[in-house]
Description:
Chain A is 69% helix and 0% strand.
Amino acid sequence: MDLGPHAAFIIAAYSASALILALLIGWIAIENRSLKRTLADFEARGITRRSDERKATLRKAEPRQSPA
Amino acid sequence: MALIDLANPTRFLSLSGRALPWLAAATALAFAYGFWLTAGAPDDYQQGATVKIMFIHVPSAWLAMFGWMVMSIAALGTLVWRHPLADMAAKAAAPIGATFTLICLITGSLWGRPMWGTYWVWDARLTSVFVLFLMYLGVIALWRTVDDPTRAGRAAAILTLVGAINIPIIKFSVDWWNTLHQPASVVKMSGPAIHPTILLPLLAMAAAFTLLFITLHVAAMRNEILKRRVRSMHMMQAEAAPGR
Amino acid sequence: MNGLGALFLRDIRIAIRIGGGAMIGVLFFMSVVTLMPFAIGPDLALLTRIGPAILWLGALLASLLALDRLLAADQEDGSLDLLTMGPAPLELSVGVKALAHWLTTALPLVIASPVLALFLNLDLLATAAVTATLLVGTPALTFIGLIGAALTVTLRRGGLLLPVLILPLAIPVLIFGVAASNAAVVGPVTFGTPFTILCALTLMSLVVGPFAAAAALRAGQE
């Protein structure tokens, strides 16, 4: 694909956009993982939300599933 | 299962969790199609191959404005209907909209240098898009500065609605003040003024970018819901402190 | 109406008192405007060309700095809560406060600008144009600033957030203010066009400002 005399600008534009989007996607993904880890940490320490405890007592026989 | 069930955060989490992989896949496919069309697009007789920058610049501009409109609707949801997810929709949309505004400014600048001879000029459209970027940063700063999420949501909602006046200014600025930036050629009263060989890749990339926005917005809203849970767990932990 | 009148007089009296801050804005305005020639150099022709812009920037910055005085003192001693719960509509109360603020903080700037225009080598026409645009445009700055003040009044670390929020909204006022001033001197656009738009911006802010600020105050107190 011949990009002509201004190829450098075209490549720079596409690369900059790709980089910025990659950073945004990465930030959202990393934050998600860290939040899930924090919530799992709370649950391991026995601190749960009131609605989770209610569900646990309602479904004593079934194994409790994680909220997310 | 009615739409109102989406208002429940837990419900939203489980539904969005199942929808997210599909949204991501659709986005990837849309970009693949868009890039394929972009690569095959002909050179513009005036601008040569640099017209390929337009296929990123214009969709990101559209989404920059779309982001603020999403935030404005969410702001109405917060202030008028007190919808539980409205706050989180607004907060999640802000960084994503800001990112697309930044991409619009950078790609526009890189396009302007070979075509206009300058990286930047203070014409009406560039100035108002830059002002939009500053407003995004202001809203993000406001979200981070107010401690209580509910109060932050209401303050941000008011600021968002006051700033919404800028969106029509951006759209019509190129027609009201015709200085350097090209006037409207797609969304006009008389229909698009671009040849289909260029219009089709543009619309395909716009669709891909929109899907990307929706995917990222849903993912970011899920993060917001989890953040609220972490916050309430911290508070429960602080309440229960000694006897543990 | 009696209550609003009393509120208005109270605000003016407090501002004029020592420590009330009414004249500080003018001093800052003078400092900014006199600093510019030191930074730019004694090129008189250049100063004439950018003189209106310097005056407008100085007025904008001086207004921004004075803004947190608008509501912060009342927030601290609890009178803001009384105003919110009082018989007069909150929109009118904050509007009256903003008007008093403009009279004591911004109007001195407008009166000082012809004097400072001398330092910037502006001729009579340019001076008159700048003063007129400042007279019409500074209320817009005050009432837009009112929104920012209301949003940040309950924050402990509000600080610089207020200017950050207000600046994007104040940019159109600045643009048209300077455009009108320059149009009177240079053309090609006539003075009337940007000046009318500046008037429109001010009128809009007179309405949007109090309503948005009242909503922000109510939202911040729940």
